[in-house]
Amino acid sequence: MADMLAILLLATLTASPAEGRVVERIVAVVRNPAGAQARPITLTRLTEEARVALVGQGALEAATAELDAPALRAALRWLVDQLLVADEAARLQVDEVAREDVQASVRRFAQRFPSEADFRRFLAASDLAEEDLAVALARDLKVQRYLESRVGRGARISDDEVARHLAGQGASAAAPGARQAARDRLLAERAQAQVHQLLADLRARADVRVLAPELAEDPAR
Q1: Sheet of 207-210, strands arranged across
Q2: Statement: 43-207 belongs to CATH 1.10.10
Q3: What pTM, to 2 d.p., does this model score?
Q4: Which of 118, 163, 177, 196 lies at a CB distance of 3.0 to 4.6 Å from 113, suitable for a disulfide?
Q5: What does the pLDDT look like over 47-71, one tens digit per residue?
């Protein structure tokens, strides 16, 4: 209880006692496992991570657009999942991502911008050092590789499952490529279900507390 009170006190930092101006806000606290030391997530970090993730997915407008509560809420869930999976990968001593792979990821990210100058302006506007960007992208690579190593391994889709799927879609099994397309889709759905289950298991072992009501999964209306 004492450490939570300390976190709540830290959540409102002021420029001076007289002004009482908020300059940073802690929006969530993660303990993994539940009894571990608390790790705060600030609004600044959440916003930075959200912009990096969205730009990395091709949403370049997110580099400068204002992120509303729904966007930040989705970003917070994504970031917590990333942290929990990264923790699990570290616990299982999964190999670190090679430096050259991280550098290649940074280059790909930078190339999403029209020019090097635009990329540099994004870093400056986000108050984000290139080293911090590299850390975030390295974590993302590690998470992706860990998930790929855990899901879909040895998965098999039977011919009967393919036939039932096609019948349910009203599709003809005789159509060129229909069976393989159905098999690929079923494999993807099974892998996604495995990811969801893995994340649920990791969250069950952790203690995640959202301190910003507007970013909670079911915010008060």
Answers
A1: 39-42, 26-31, 207-210
A2: no
A3: 0.81
A4: 118
A5: 999 999 999 999 999 999 999 999 9
